[in-house]
Amino acid sequence: GAVVSQHPSRVICKSGTSVKIECRSLDFQATTMFWYRQFPKQSLMLMATSNEGSKATYEQGVEKDKFLINHASLTLSTLTVTSAHPEDSSFYICSARDEGEKLFFGSGTQLSVL
Amino acid sequence: QKEVEQNSGPLSVPEGAIASLNCTYSDRGSQSFFWYRQYSGKSPELIMFIYSNGDKEDGRFTAQLNKASQYVSLLIRDSQPSDSATYLCAVSRGGNTPLVFGKGTRLSVIA
User: In whole numbers, what is the pLDDT of chain A averaged over residues?
Assistant: First the structure.
């Protein structure tokens, strides 16, 4: 299947700092990428849809000023968690569709905010 | 509101048995159906997808879709302890619409 690379895999940071997570489609172009968040033992929650060359579409309840998404090219989307707080600690996963409709996930980023 | 329902489990099966995982969805406009496997602390991995009514087999896995009943299932034959994971059902309306995920069913295969 298609390969989606995500890094870093783990981040520990102090409260108030910003954290950037990168998501790359390695062997295909992705005009759209999706960012999910998953709390322990919970289901995947879609945060936003990242569109290449345009603004991201955020799900209800997700603060766009806190979770900045940039999709600057057909192979790269970034999620920046600004002024992170302990309640932002979660597993963040990006995903991208290949030329078909199959969705492939990055390896995820475990964010821990102290 | 689009919903995907799965029994959270845990579903326990002995090694070598058939594991049957079920999923129902509320959106009749759903066109694409996916099963993902997620190990603890890892991201989901696509294992099956199905678009048409009926069965689709791939190795030990069989996906079954019944659009009239809004029901999709995953059968795992000859279950192995390494199959122990959470299985996520996901549906979409097709095209570039987001997938809607169920909460997942935790499968435990007992050696």
Answer: 92
